[in-house]
Amino acid sequence: MGLVKNEEGGKKVSDLYLELSDVPKRFRPLAKDTVSVWIHKINSVKIIGPDAQPRILRKYATEICVSTGRSGAGCYPCTTQDPMWDKLDAKSKTNKKGARTDFPKSCVDLLPVLDLDTGKVKIMKGGNQLYENMGLWLATQPDSGKDLRRCEWTATKTGKELFTKYSTMRLDATQFQASAELEAEAAIMMERAKQDMAPLKLEQFMAAINGGEIPLNNNTTTVSVPAVNMSSSVSQQPEVPATFTFEPKVTPIPVTPAVMGGVSIIDTFSTWVNQQPEFQGMGAFDNLIPVLQEKIGGVNYHKCTPEQIALIQTALTAKLSSIRAKKA
To answer: What pTM does this model have?
Structure first.
């Protein structure tokens, strides 16, 4: 649910991610293995304008998915049709089977590393191609030796756009022990990466896919996007009327009747979830998804009965109370 822009305040996050080029970049992993997340691709849209000049209607971006696998569903990109699908190039419109695809999903891995050229801690982010050789090496190691930190590695990026290729290569294993300061910095950088992949609210997602400016992702501020075309359908997740408000404390929502004031229980519950900071970003993986999987065996609660929503709400309220009690 979170748009991955690699930007903060409109500027590239050069101090967060490891920048790769055709010159091999030497690094040392600071974690035994990678952290995997699923993302949706919001493909760029380019047209030829009236002046016969190319024009970019929408920039490429990625949106984090709350699912834990390719077939899972439950976030906005899983349930929304791309309003610019007809303007995509032919290759981006369908999958390998020829079926229409809206915001295709793929897996991305995050790994904290020490840039051996600069001595700085970075996050290496990439897909299967980048981590293929690392995964193959891990598979050959005994359980006691499955640790990427045992070796130095290089990473390389060649080509551009659709022809871009990534690769890693293992160097000789050498003795290495990360200091407490390095481990602490690696943890901080991973948290920053999680924040960079924080989930968007509905109006932010709609702005992104319609080619508009993306409002700030702020859980305490209401953001208006007047220029955005909101005609695209998001199943079971309509806009909540402006008169509907939430208390800042953890308050269970009523579950009867099934519709109150024109707002369905599911819509009310969905908005309540989006208002809780503990369920945003990677908090969705730590706090939200485990409860949904326990109560309904998955993450798509949009077809649940009011009784099921009540069970989920009770469990999530208890979870929030426990988290906030520990912080107090």
So the answer is: 0.57
